[in-house]
Amino acid sequence: MKESSGKKLKIAVLYGGRSGEHEVSLRSAASVIRNLDPSRFEVIPIGIDKDGRWLLNDVSLIEKGAQALPIFKDHPVVLPPNPVLDGTALIPLGAGANSAPRKVDVVFPVLHGPLCEDGTIQGLLELADVAYVGCGVLASAVGMDKEVTKRLVRDAGLPIVPYVSARSESWRRDRAAVRERVGRELGYPVFVKPANLGSSVGVHKVKEPAALDAALEDAFRYDTKVLIETSIDAREVELAVLENSEAGAAPLVSVPGEVVPTHEFYSYEAKYLDENGAALNIPARLTEAQTREAQRIAARAFESLECEGLARVDLFIDRGSGKFYFNEVNTIPGFTSISMYPKMWEASGIPYQELLSKLIDLAVARHARKQALVREFHR
Question: What pTM, to 2 d.p., does this model score?
Fold first, then answer.
């Protein structure tokens, strides 16, 4: 799928969603739309409301300076499971049965959390046979589950912080067993987190056994599996990884950034509600050797999880030993104007608008490679 001379690609920016990170997505989408190159792309905003309805939206509010893109309720759309006409079309249901389909060349998902970046949207887009930005089904699903991610990167030889996991059924059935395992295998303090959520939603630092029950109860409100991991005295280092435009070549890794929270840890409040919740140091204050090691781990994690397009890899560095630990991967990282992923690439020489264009170009190239595959077996 290539642009013809003077022809703009139609980019459906998909945002909102049914996860606890819905509001974060509204801000990320506004920032992406504001920074897409208007000389190359025509934007079609599509919001997914909290009931899962897909709704056609308008860019006029972005042009007026809105920092978050709302979801209007009166323009539902359907993404067909097969290509329509000469490309994928979004059918506006609310505008009359005879309305012409609006062709879409690439879908840019700016969605965070379960039912968004966990492979479900990606699977739907694969069925629709449409190009889309970011990781495919496998990496998206794996990256969303923090516990499965840790298993795979550990098997790839990367260091992780000790952890245990618990499911809601086992917690309800035998709370004492979960408490005993945490105390025996990890000790305190620990971090409790939903296994399939981001943006620090439902995350708690537990300093003593008496506080464990309340933290688990809150985390189980968001997920049926919870991760409990040892709390170490560490700095939080993040790296932006970008698929190489040369197919098969090593991924590109940005300079590291460091999150220095003014709160006890980098909580949801510190990220999104408190303007002074954290300082973001880009580049991170690391030695050259530490920077190379962080970039090596980030690239290895990206490859071992079979990521495509983009991902943000988060690490811990122990303040005492200087050892790095893999923390998690975000396959659709935040894209607000203050988000680490675009800011780290800006510091590495790729401006925001150019970064978005590269991601769309990667999506088009991947779709073309898949289109070239044989889909029928012939003897």
Answer: 0.86
